[in-house]
Structures are given as C-alpha cells and as structure tokens.
Amino acid sequence: MKLQTFIITLLISSITFAQDFIAQNLTISDYVEGTLLIPNKKTNTLVIIIPGSGPTDRDGNQNFGKNNSLKYLAQDLTHNGIATFRYDKRALTMLKKGANATAISKVRFDDFVTDAKKVVAYFNLRKRYQNIYILGHSQGSLVGMLASKENVTGFISLSGAGNSIDTVIMKQLKGMGVQQSMLDEAQKTFDILKIGEIDKDFSPYLANIFNLEVQPFMMSWIKYTPTKVLSQLNIPTLIINGDKDLQVSVAEATLLKEAKKDFQFSIIKNMNHVLKTVETDNKQENMKTYNMQELKNNPALIKAILKFLKK
Q1: pLDDT, tens digit, for every residue of 175-206?
Q2: Which domain covers residue 200, as residue numbers?
Q3: Domains in the chain, number
Q4: With b meaning 16 or more CB within 10 Å and e meaning fewer, what string describes 107-131?
Q5: Same domain, yes or no, for 137 and 169?
Q6: Do both 65 and 174 map to the same domain?
Q7: Phi-psi region of 98 (alpha: psi -120 to 50; beta: other; left: phi over 0)
Q8: Claim: this prediction has a pTM higher than 0.85
C-alpha cells in the first residue's frame, strides 16, 4: 500500500461522518481518550461531558449497565449545533493500555480533575471554540466544578450531589434500612478517613465500600464538599436533576442551588439517574433502564440545556 493511501485510510478510521455532524476520536493525554462530535454548521460552542463514578466510558456505560446516556446527550447537543467532547474514565484508558490492578488502585479523585483540566487546556490552545462549557454527570459534577475555576465559559451540574461523599453514602445506607450498628461502623471509618488515615479495622460487612484498595481513593474524594466548591464559581451555572433519580435526590440538587442563588435550576419530571424517562415509582422498573441501550434520554433534558447555552 502506498504511503499516501495508508495515511488517508488511517484518517478515515478515526473520523466518522453522520448526517449532520462529524465524529472524531481524539487522544488528549496518556489517560484521556474520547470522541469529538462536530456539527456540520459552524459553531463557536463546545460542551465537555465528564462521566460519573465507577469504570464509566464516554457513552455513560459500564460492564453491567449499558444505557448510552452520555452518548445520546452528546448527539442531542450536536444535532442542535453544539460541538461536544466526551471521554472514558482514566481507569478504562489504563486498562486498554495494559495497566495492572496495582497501578489502577493508585488513581485518586484529583487525577480526574487533572484529566478534565487537560481537556479544557487542549481545546483552549486550539482556539476553535470561543465558548467552552463543562457538563459533569454524577461524580463528574464535582470533578467539573473543580475543573471550571478557570478558562471555562460555564458549568452544568447533571445529577450531582450537594453533600460530600461520606454524607451521601450515609444517607444511602439509612435509606436501605441498614442497622444502626453498621451505620455507626461506617461513620467511624469515614471519621478516620477524614483525618487522612486508613481504617484497617473496618467492618467486613462494609467491605464493598471500605476495602483497603478503595480507602485511599475515598480519602481523596471525601475532602471536597460540592456546595463549597460550587459557591466559588463565578461563571454561568445550571443545576439539573431528575425527580426519579434513585442515587442523587432532588434535595441534593437543591443544596447546590442554595450555594449560590443566581444559578439556574431545573428539575426534570420523570427523569432518573441515567437520564431516562421513568413514569413509575417502582425501583425495579427504574433500575431496568440502566441497561437499556435503545432507550433515549428524557426529551426535557436537552431542552433545559439548550435554553441555558443559548442565553
């Protein structure tokens, strides 16, 4: 194969043309790989989409939960003339490159913030987009807040908590009907983590939360309170939550709203944590949508975001 033909083939493999946008895979750094969607009509606005907790990919999917929530969100924005960039969590990129469990266990919450800042810097350096917004989903909301302190036009918190992660988990445990003795054990471990120490004597019944490999990461996350971080932002901000969200309640979103009164606030009726429409209070029916790739996002979501972006 001639060199020129090979180069053309290589370019085509990383760029996909859709009816009204171009999809281009980009490598931002050793830890950040994602997809840029560029609308066919000229735009000066880019939305960077940050995924939530766990080994979540650029589409919003995990091994046992494939719902394409962030993929559909990106496509909805780009169909409406807004460029988008979404990327895989750091651990997934490391796995793809052959990293072992020990290396991945050393990832800390601040690494996610570093990755987000590198994405912002990448696009600012190229000066293609005049307006750069960060949209963080779930855990990505706090990551996005911390990355939005400079060189960003605006910020969107989507299904983001207002409390620190220890308070959120304690509320979830109480909501699950966990016995008081276990709640006391969890609080004891959180208190130890808050002072920067590892709890080697944690309850084995709480190992899924506090195993020794996870505690250092939890320690790096627990030091941030979203309401405090958000109150320091001086850029246009939109706070969105769904009233059928089983993981992050409307009360959490309200805390964010109260952090700064002039921020915009939108509660989407019948939207759950993975952005799908759920018209029942049945938790099992709600959770089913976490693994329904064909189900599109709640249509009110894109309307709320576009209203904010076009103000």
Answers
A1: 889 999 999 999 999 999 999 999 999 999 99
A2: 165-223
A3: 2
A4: bebebbbbbbbebbebbeeeeebee
A5: no
A6: no
A7: left
A8: yes
